[in-house]
Amino acid sequence: MPIDYSKWNNLELSDDSDVEVHPNIEKGTFIRLRQQKIRQDRENRKTQLDALEAEIPMNKKLIKRIEKLKSQIEEDSELDFAKRLGEWSQRMEEQKDFITQFQNSIKEGKEFRPLTLDEMVNGLIYRIQEEMVQLKKENKQNTDIKSEVLSIIDKHLTNLRNREPEALKKIDEIKKEMRLHLSIDEVTKEGFSKSIITKDSGGKKTVKTKTTTVEVLNPNSVPKKITKEDVSDIPQPDDKEISLEDEEVDELDMDSDSREFGLIQSLEKTRDFIVNNIAIINPKKSDQIMAHAFELQMEGKEELAKLHVRQSLIINYVRQMGMNGVNAFFSKVVIPNSPGNAMFFNDVNKQYSHIKERCKVLIKEQQDSSATESIQLQTDDPNNSIRIYVPDENNTEEADKVEIFKQLPVDFQNALKIGTLEAVNESLAKVTGTEAEDILEKCGLGGFLVIDEEIIVENDS
């Protein structure tokens, strides 16, 4: 069976060395200019396609808003309609400044933020007033003006409804043009990827290190540090788990770039940061930010935690979208209520909900562990006996110690009066770790437990 190579017919190469050039034109310069033009045309087609695909759903929502405005005007009495015209006139100067700013940005080729539905409706009202001025309807009765306004609104509704088939036709033309100028990315895909790392096969090296540890009576009172297992447990946007098996990824402490990126509120500033710091697009930094989101949620800082989840997912999305991932991602997400915007923020809510539920489980585990933990005392040498001191209530000089002794639980007071370590431990086993710490602190203040050798405090669950 012959092999079909037809899919390569429309492949457009930007670095074709076989191209023929005029003898008076330097070949290298010509090829570079040709490369630039091909890439620019390719980017323009993609940008135009994205804009048209976003325009259609936006126009449908705008039509509904205008139809609602039209029905309200139709129901207005003469007095209500006159009041509406007065409100429009008060906002006319403000709308004029906004539209002038918008038009100047377009003329200068600057990028202007996407308009909201309210701004579009206000722009329509401004255009209605302009047309009314041109038709010189100011001196007519309100009823005549009202019918003229409704007529102008109908005209704009017709234009918007006719725009959808035009946009669909233009989309088909652009897609057809794109099929005539294929790039390598559009006709190829990654089959498989494999990396091999040769590890040192020599003997294991023993490195002696000096560490300082702090022993606490109740280790569960210290907030649990987020581990790589907690981060890897979060489902990713493409349902692929992030590999966290390398030793480097065990370090989930945030570096300065990740910390700064995680606190950026605006999507526009986020895009600028990525463009100026492309190294932030790294799975390790995404894991750092996600781990910090865990820590913030454990501390009860929900808004900051959700912001860090969003920033972490932005890194993942941009990284998965390839070379043009920054522009492609933000062009789809910044448009309110667009499919890309809805899909991304649904994913953010899903990931944050997972973290929220996971943190609830971790906090409950800590509370349960703390509730069941007890503290036991023992000496270095089993042959040594502990000296237990009980203050004399009749001795006025020991009034302070008697007051402290009375603050102890009755069961522990009786254990001290028995005077054995077994009785003390038996009483400590009946209370939680936190309560035992408080008891031992009071014993230290009153000097009720004294021993020549070292007392070892053990946690016993």
Automatic annotation (TrEMBL):
<dbReference type="Pfam" id="PF03234">
    <property type="entry name" value="CDC37_N"/>
</dbReference>
<dbReference type="InterPro" id="IPR038189">
    <property type="entry name" value="Cdc37_Hsp90-bd_sf"/>
</dbReference>
<dbReference type="GO" id="GO:0019901">
    <property type="term" value="F:protein kinase binding"/>
</dbReference>
<dbReference type="GO" id="GO:0031072">
    <property type="term" value="F:heat shock protein binding"/>
</dbReference>
<keyword id="KW-0175">Coiled coil</keyword>
<protein>
    <recommendedName>
        <fullName>Hsp90 chaperone protein kinase-targeting subunit</fullName>
    </recommendedName>
</protein>
<dbReference type="GO" id="GO:0006457">
    <property type="term" value="P:protein folding"/>
</dbReference>
<feature type="domain" description="Cdc37 N-terminal">
    <location>
        <begin position="2"/>
        <end position="195"/>
    </location>
</feature>
<feature type="coiled-coil region">
    <location>
        <begin position="128"/>
        <end position="177"/>
    </location>
</feature>
<dbReference type="GO" id="GO:0005737">
    <property type="term" value="C:cytoplasm"/>
</dbReference>
<dbReference type="GO" id="GO:0051087">
    <property type="term" value="F:protein-folding chaperone binding"/>
</dbReference>
<dbReference type="InterPro" id="IPR004918">
    <property type="entry name" value="Cdc37"/>
</dbReference>
<dbReference type="InterPro" id="IPR013874">
    <property type="entry name" value="Cdc37_Hsp90-bd"/>
</dbReference>
<keyword id="KW-0143">Chaperone</keyword>
<dbReference type="Pfam" id="PF08564">
    <property type="entry name" value="CDC37_C"/>
</dbReference>
<comment type="similarity">
    <text>Belongs to the CDC37 family.</text>
</comment>
<dbReference type="GO" id="GO:0051082">
    <property type="term" value="F:unfolded protein binding"/>
</dbReference>
<dbReference type="InterPro" id="IPR013873">
    <property type="entry name" value="Cdc37_C"/>
</dbReference>
<dbReference type="Pfam" id="PF08565">
    <property type="entry name" value="CDC37_M"/>
</dbReference>
<keyword id="KW-0963">Cytoplasm</keyword>
<dbReference type="GO" id="GO:0050821">
    <property type="term" value="P:protein stabilization"/>
</dbReference>
<dbReference type="InterPro" id="IPR013855">
    <property type="entry name" value="Cdc37_N_dom"/>
</dbReference>
<feature type="coiled-coil region">
    <location>
        <begin position="35"/>
        <end position="79"/>
    </location>
</feature>
<feature type="domain" description="Cdc37 C-terminal">
    <location>
        <begin position="388"/>
        <end position="461"/>
    </location>
</feature>
<feature type="domain" description="Cdc37 Hsp90 binding">
    <location>
        <begin position="193"/>
        <end position="374"/>
    </location>
</feature>
